Structures are given as C-alpha cells and as structure tokens.
Amino acid sequence: MAVKVVCYVRRRDPACATGSVEARGGQGWDCFEVEVEEGSTVLDVLRAISRQDPTLAHTTHHCKTGICGGCTLQVNGRQRLACRTLASEHMRLEPAPGLPLIKDLLVDLLPLQRKGLPQRREAH
Q1: pLDDT tens digits for range 13-39
Q2: pLDDT per residue as tens digits for the range 40-84
Q3: Which CATH number is correct for 2-116, 3.30.70.600, 3.90.950.10, 3.10.20.30, 3.10.290.10?
Q4: Residue 45's beta-bridge partner residues?
Q5: Are 108 and 102 in contact (CB under 8 A)?
Q6: 3-class SS at 34?
Q7: Neighbour-count burial of 93, counting CB atoms closer than 10 A to its CB (0-12 exposed, 13-18 middle, 19+ buried)
Q8: Does residue 104 contact residue 21 with C-beta atoms inside 8 Å?
Q9: Domain extents for the chain?
C-alpha cells in the first residue's frame, strides 16, 4: 500500500555566491510530496524525490545495510542512516552536521572514513 510523504529538504550549494538557495527567493528549503510503499526507508524517499527533481544532491553509493555510514544525514533534527530509518509522513532532511558540505544533502565522508581506518604500521 502506498503512503504519501511530505518531506522538507534543506538545499545549499557552497559553490554559489551566497552559499545557499536563498538567492532564488526561498529560505533554503524545498518541499516534496512523494508516494512510497508502506515500510519504506528515508533512502527510498530520497530516490522518489530524485525522480521528481534530479538536481537534488544526495549520496547514491552506500551499502544499504547500515554499515558504511555513507547515507548519514539528519532526519527531523537527529542524525540517522537513510538506509535504516523508516520514513514518516512528515520529515525534515538536512545534511549530516560536522562534515564538509558538497551540495544539498551530500557531504564529504572522507573525515569519517579516515577516523575509521586503522593506523598503518611501517614494516621494519
């Protein structure tokens, strides 16, 4: 059974002169209404939104099992994994805090990946 989801997405582009979409008259948020199957994840909602607006930047490469952290973002003000978080009827999506913003919901995960890598030991 399909359910309607209303989703507000924080849009920002650091490459723009103002660094946000406020220059186009908005407050930096876009509202999307999509239909997804009951029990869908936030990642499923992002895919549905991308079909409506292919300019939305969000991660597309991830494990879908909650291990890699590639789909980390804020859902209703709490840091979550999009692949493991069930969608709700009303959501507010923002990029993961504390990571360099690339555009919209897409962040540079390299700082997280570096933290998770074991220290290399030099062979003697």
Answers
A1: 888 765 555 455 445 999 999 999 999
A2: 999 999 999 999 999 999 887 667 777 778 889 999 999 999 999
A3: 3.10.20.30
A4: none
A5: yes
A6: strand
A7: buried
A8: no
A9: 2-116
